[in-house]
Specification:
There is one protein chain. The protein is mainly alpha-helical and 49 residues long. The chain has a domain at 11-42. Helices cover 41% and strands 0% of the residues. It is built from 2 helices and no strands. The chain has helices spanning 18-26, 30-40. The N and C termini lie far apart (27 Å).
């Protein structure tokens, strides 16, 4: 497995909107989802789309 970080969410603000973050907080997964989201959510559409 490579130690090279994936190119993910490049912005300082969360990739999730306020409503999504509220639900994530309510069910106790906010930190986990934020970390994962920053790795896998992009701010562009991949070429295959």
């Amino acid at each position: 497995m490579s130690d090279t970080p994936l190119a993910g969410w490049p912005h300082p603000e969360s990739p999730f909107h306020d409503g999504e973050r509220a639900v994530q907080q309510r069910v106790g997964v906010a930190d986990k989802v934020e970390t994962s989201g920053r790795r896998v959510i992009r701010d562009y559409m991949p070429d295959q789309h």
